[in-house]
Each structure stands twice: as C-alpha cells, then as structure tokens.
Amino acid sequence: MEVRSDRNRDRGRRLIGRALSVAIISAAILMGGYVTREYYVHPRTDDAYVRANVVGIAPHVSGPIVTLPVVDNQRVSAGDLLFEVDPRPYQHEVDRLEAKLALTNLDVQAYEEAIGAARAEQARREADAAYSRQYLDRITPLLSKRYVTANDVYNARSRLMADEAAVRNAESEAKRAERQLGRLGGINARVKEVEAEVADAQLKASYCSVHAPFDGYVTNLNIAVGEYANEGRQVVSLVDDRTWYVLANFRENFLPHIKVGMTADVFLLSYPHRRFRGRVQGVGWALHQDNGATVDGLPAIEPTLNWVRLSQRFPVRVVLEERDPEGPFRMGTTAVVTIQGFRNDAGQQ
User: Fold this and answer.
1) Are 19 and 319 in contact (CB under 8 A)?
2) pTM of the model
3) What pLDDT sits at residue 38?
C-alpha cells in the first residue's frame, strides 16, 4: 500500500509539473504576443525632444538702438516693445516730405487758377473770333454794292483768321495748364506721388519701434543700447510660445503604425510625473545620408556588412495640445513619446 501510494504521489507531482510547465510556456507565449503587439501597435521612443519655432526679429530700417526694454529669457506678449532704432532721421524725412506735400498742394492750386485764367482767355478769344466772323458776314454782301472796298473785306477776313488762331493758341495754353496740373481721372498724379512718399517715410518711421509679433520668450540676447542695427539683419530671437511640439525619432519599421491625427502620450524628463497629450501632425519623408552623395563628380559608397542592417529613424512631429502653467515647456527638453492611436474625446480607441 505504501509503495502504491508513493507511485500515485509521484504521478501527481509529474502531472502538476507538466501542467505548470504548459501554463508557464503558454503564459510566456501570450505575454510575448501581447508585448509584441503593444510594441508595434503603440510604438514608443525616448529619442524625442521638445521643439518650438524660433523667429529672428530684424528691423526694417537701420540705425543705432536707443531703447532696449527686454532682457535675455524674458517672456513677452504680442505687441510688447522689443527695441527701438533712433527715429530722428526718419522723422525728419517725414517732416520734409510733409512740407513738400504742402508745397505741392499750393502748386496744384496755382495750376488750377492758371487753368481758369487760360479758359477765360480762351473764351475771350472765342468771343473776338465770333465778332470778327459776324462782321465779315455783314460786310461781304456790301462789296458788290460798293458800300465797302475790297480792302475792307480783306482786312475783316485777316482779322477773323488772326482771332481764330488766337482761339487755338488759348485752347492749347489751357490744355498745357491742365497737363501741368497732373490730373488723371479723379486723381492728381503730382499730389499722389508726394503722398506716397510721405506714407513711405511714415512707414519707415514706424519701423523704428520693433514690437513682438506674438507671445514668446526672448532668447540669446547679445545686444545693448548703442549698438547699430542693420536693416534685415537679426537683432532679437523669439521662441514662439503659441505652438510647441515634440520631434520623436521612430524606427522605420514603426512608421506603418503611425498615422497623422493619432494621439500620443508625452512624458518630459523635467516633469516625470506629468503626462501631456499630443497629436501626430506629420511623419518625415526624407533623411539626409552621406552614403551615396556625390564627391568630385563621383558617387561615394561606403562599404557595408550585408548581415548587419540598422533601422533608420524618421522624425515624427507631435503637436502638444495640453499646457500646464506650473510646467512651462522648454525647447530641447528630452521627452518619451508613446503613440496611442486614434482616440475620441472620451479617450476611447
């Protein structure tokens, strides 16, 4: 009885051991399948960094900087004064052109008066010509009755020709005065030209004060009052605080599982216990590679080992949709990104 009992216990132990082995192997297979699925369905990378657009602010005019109210790393709001270029030369130009505009308006007024005088002279000459024509018409029939001489008729005809020539000359003078006025349709070209010069000078004067175009942070400020600012050359750099994103570098075999619009969980090393929600904005289409580049007209191909294949990493831009006043973003912060797929507002896939 004892021998049979020992055999039964051994048989039971073997069955339990086999069952445990099968269970462990099955669990390992299931766990491996689950991990593999999660590995590809929800790709994850720690090769990611917080980014923002950095905009170089350059003046539209040149001159010494006379006002610099900002300091390095200061937060500014849209419309805040960043720096001011000496406005005096540009304001003097505005004053000069405004005086020129006033003189031009006086010239236009004088031309208008000249046009009026020319038209009046033309009317007088036309009246003289009309009288001469009427006089010639009256005395011409009298020549046959010998009440007037041929010389009288000749003199009347000559006077009419002179008066008609005077009318044409007066009309030409009136047209020349109108052309000098510079009116094209309903616009006076002379005044319009100077007004455009005044507007351009006023615009340049307004450019002397450079304001922040958006909310952001002043960075890498290396100037001081008195430094000469050149037109079109960067003076201040602003980190755009309107949009922050993460550039996450994913292996190329993950890309088929990453689509535009998918949500992502983002953890920052600076705030390890805070999760930020992001959304995939786009996946990179190209990488720069030195291998295959042309050198001196010939392709440079590096030797490779065919049995060693390294996956390339493509940048995936994830726009951060959540902000935390207690945890402001900083450009260059290391991040960990996990793609969660498409989710609705309730957070369900």
Assistant:
1) no
2) 0.69
3) 58
**Dihedral in degrees, nearest 10, Cα atoms 133, 139, 141, 145:** -170
Asked if residues 178 and 115 have their Cβ atoms less than 8 Å apart, the reply is yes
Can you spell out the DSSP letters for 229-265? EPTTS--EEEEEEEEEEEEEEEEGGGGGG--TT-EEE
Name the nearest CA neighbour of 129 among 92, 96, 101, 171. Answer: 171
Name the percent of the chain in helix, strand, coil, to the closest 5.
45, 25, 30
The structure tokens listed for 235 are: 């003076």
62 pLDDT higher than 90: yes
In CATH terms, the fold of domain 59-87+208-233 is OB fold (Dihydrolipoamide Acetyltransferase, E2P) (2.40.50)
Tokens of 116: 């009026």
Q: 346: pLDDT confidence band, cut at 50, 70 and 90?
A: very low
* CA–CA gap between residue 47 and residue 243 (Å, rounded): 20
- How far out from the chain centre does Cα 107 lie? 41
What residues does each domain of the chain span? 41-54+241-349, 59-87+208-233, 90-199
| Domain 59-87+208-233 in the same topology as domain 41-54+241-349 | no
Cβ-in-10-Å burial (0-12, 13-18, 19+) of 80 comes to middle
Report the distance separating Cα 321 and Cα 306, nearest Å: 43
> In angstroms, rounded to a whole number, what is the distance separating the alpha carbons of residues 36 and 20?
24
Alpha carbons 84 and 209: distance in angstroms, whole number: 4
Q: Is residue 63 within 8 Å of residue 229, measured between CB atoms?
A: yes
For domain 41-54+241-349, the CATH class is mainly beta
pLDDT digits (tens, 9 = 90+) for 185-235: 666 778 888 889 999 999 999 999 999 999 999 998 999 999 999 999 999
